[in-house]
Amino acid sequence: MNAYEPWSAARCNEIITSHSHVEGGVIVILHAIQDAFGYVPEPAIPMIAEARNLSRAEVHGVFTFYHDFRHEPAGKRVLKICRAEACQAAGGDALAARAEQKLGVKLGNTTADDRVTLEPIYCLGLCATAPSAMLDGKLVGRLDEKRMDALVAEAQR
Ligand code: FES
């Protein structure tokens, strides 16, 4: 199962409150909410608006402007592929393309059967064993075509 928490308004409020003094405003909060729940649930928008003294339209505008934010829950499994420098230099581009092709979705999307969400991530701290990926919180390094295929197959199970 993916490592995200189920939606909870109380938890969302906690996240918003814990970011009340953080620079960067709405984008930072949206990211924190997505990190917790795997997407930004619609009820989070008015909660952020209220906490930041903004209109819902303003928060919604930020939410829809950036393509980073997911509007729907993530799939059952989440496969994150590192797209940062060390992994790219080690052949990460071809492996990311391979995962996209095997799953039939582009990075940032979920398969039609809701089983797998494929996401880019920017450094997993596993550069020494690049190229790297993470399946539901489990780190995997030293990827090659064979290991990527096995990882995709595991995500689809
Ligand atoms: S660049 Fe991929 S793990 Fe650091």
Can you characterise this structure?
InterPro entries: NADP_DH_HndA-like, NuoE-like, NuoE_N, Thioredoxin-like_sf. Belongs to the complex I 24 kDa subunit family. This is Formate dehydrogenase subunit gamma. Keywords: 2Fe-2S, Iron, Iron-sulfur, Metal-binding. Its cofactor is [2Fe-2S] cluster. By secondary structure, this protein is of the alpha+beta class. It folds into 2 domains: about 10-65, no CATH class; about 75-155, Glutaredoxin, CATH 3.40.30. About 45% of the residues lie in helices and about 15% in strands. The protein is built from 6 helices and 5 strands. It has helices at about 10-20, 25-35, 45-50, 55-65, 85-105, 145-155; strands at about 75-80, 110, 115-120, 135, 140. The protein has a 5-stranded mixed sheet with strand order 2-3-1-4-5, with helices on one face. A hairpin with a 2-residue loop joins β4 (about 135) and β5. α1 (about 10-20) runs parallel beside α3 and α3 crosses α4 (about 55-65). The longest helix is centred in the middle third of the chain and has 19 residues, at about 85-105. The radius of gyration is 17 Å and the shape is elongated. The chain starts with 8 loop residues before the first helix and ends with a helix. The structure holds FE2/S2 (inorganic) cluster.
